[in-house]
Design brief:
Largest sheet: 7 strands, mixed
Helix content: 25-40%
Shape: globular
CATH superfamily of the domain at 74-250: von Willebrand factor, type A domain
Oligomer: single chain
Radius of gyration: 26 Å
Order of helices and strands: EEEEEHEEEHHEHEHEHEEEEEEHHHHHH
Length: 433
């Protein structure tokens, strides 16, 4: 039996990651999706001015309206049964599942799938959460042996087809697993195509991430673009709490943008397709800003199939050094039009900022080692790479200053250095002016 306290390794092997194929973070878990900072739970436009005169922004949007706390939904559960989901992970995931089903609205309907190489339905149709068919489905699921890898794309495509076409109920997916799709590592275009289908069908995906390794970015990107939430398995989060959070999140209202009324002052915006909004967390847009006074932002949205309009009065904040990661994040977002962004609320943005800062610090250490070993060109190249990712990084600028000083000293002939009485500590016979 694996001890839950030994968990906490996040592996980002999602192909949409920020220029990195695989990142490992032992002993470090991302914050809860509902946590505040760096923006918070209210509408806010944070900015960062670069030395070249560009202004980058992070816009936090929260609908300022009241909606029913929960609503009857059609819920499809994707329960990961791949080889990684064994022992304590499997036992706890089943507890989370039971807790989530127990907290659903009495009129919600559920269908349960096991997902690994292929999605396998455990019951034949959407039924009430307390229906005998669901109890039998959970029993069948608990007897299923965890084997093989997961093809998450196949599972999500099956979900799209499994929802009734003409049902007026909101469509929700609960995923329980590690998010790692080893059987089919999604590329940018495939993820974009799949996400667009999910958004068109108004399907919102919330996840409980658990396992010895987690693809947090995949699950966070899905939550970001579908108006869902993500909860990460941690010792202080009980299965009952996780299940309840999943049930509540899955039955919250999701506002689906249908037209863009953002002002022209936002010169460049990512994701280009504005993500859905919720009242229980903020939604994040990033990009470049034309400096000026405040403005009004308006969005035409749908809530439970009904059109409505949201609006905000927004004033840009002063440039904040805490957001110096934005130039790099915007640069990375351009390649995928923002589909790769795992910024599901402020907590997702904070995690991305941490990753960018961590990678910059690793490069600084590499540059310092290169400098100590006499590889000035190598150290300078790495320092330049850091400054492209993190303009104004003080450590990188310090390394470049020392390198320039070394190069100037090396350019002075040894003979002239020996004859210089000021350098040798002697006195100069030159008359004072």
């Amino acid at each position: 039996m694996q001890d839950k306290k030994t968990r906490g390794v996040i592996v980002v092997c999602f192909s949409l990651s920020f220029g990195v194929a695989c990142l490992l973070f032992p002993g470090s878990l991302p914050p809860r999706a509902e946590a505040a900072d760096p923006l918070g739970s209210t509408t806010r436009l944070a900015t960062y001015d670069t030395a070249t005169g560009d202004t980058f922004f992070a816009l936090s949007l929260v609908p300022q309206v009241e909606v029913p706390a929960v609503r009857p939904c059609d819920v499809i559960v994707l329960f990961d049964t791949s080889a990684s989901q064994t022992g304590a992970y499997r036992s706890e995931s089943l507890e989370v599942l039971r807790a989530a089903l127990g907290q659903l609205h009495e009129e919600s309907r559920v269908r349960l799938y096991a997902i690994d190489l292929l999605p396998t339905p455990m019951n034949d149709a959407l039924v009430g959460a307390t229906d005998p068919a669901i109890l039998k489905a959970i029993d069948l699921l608990s007897q299923r042996i965890p084997l093989g890898a997961t093809d998450l794309a196949v599972g999500l495509r099956e979900v799209i087809k499994a929802f009734p076409r003409r049902s007026p109920r909101p469509r929700r997916v609960i995923y329980i697993g590690d998010g790692i799709s080893r059987a089919n590592i999604l590329q940018v275009e495939e993820f974009r195509e799949l996400a667009e289908q999910i958004v068109t069908q108004r399907i919102s995906i919330s996840s409980f991430a658990t396992g010895p390794q987690l693809d947090f970015q995949m699950l966070a990107a899905l939550a970001n673009h579908t108006g869902g939430m993500i909860y990460v398995d941690r010792p202080e989060l009980s299965p009952q709490q996780a299940g309840t959070a999943l049930a509540v999140a899955s039955q919250q209202g999701v506002f689906w943008p249908v037209s863009n009324g953002l002002p022209k002052a936002l010169k460049e915006v990512f994701p280009q397709r504005i993500p859905p909004l919720r009242t229980d967390r903020d939604s994040i847009l990033i990009g470049k800003l034309q400096r000026g006074d405040g403005f009004t932002a308006r969005l035409q949205v749908e809530l439970d199939g009904r059109p409505t309009q949201l609006s905000w009065e927004i004033a840009p904040e002063k440039s904040n050094e805490a957001f110096n990661f934005l130039p790099q994040l915007v640069k990375e977002a351009r390649a995928s039009q923002g589909w790769s962004l795992p910024t599901a609320g402020s907590a997702g943005l904070r995690e991305v900022a941490r990753l960018i800062s961590s990678s910059a610090q690793e490069l600084i250490q590499f540059a310092q080692r290169a400098f100590k070993n006499g590889d000035l060109e190598g150290a300078n190249t790495v320092a330049d790479a850091v400054l492209r990712r993190d303009p104004g990084n003080p450590d990188a600028e310090a390394i470049k200053r020392v390198i320039q000083k070394k190069k100037r000293e090396a350019a002075v002939p040894r003979t002239s250095r020996k004859k210089n009485p000021l350098r040798s500590g002697g006195s100069s016979n030159r008359p004072r002016r």
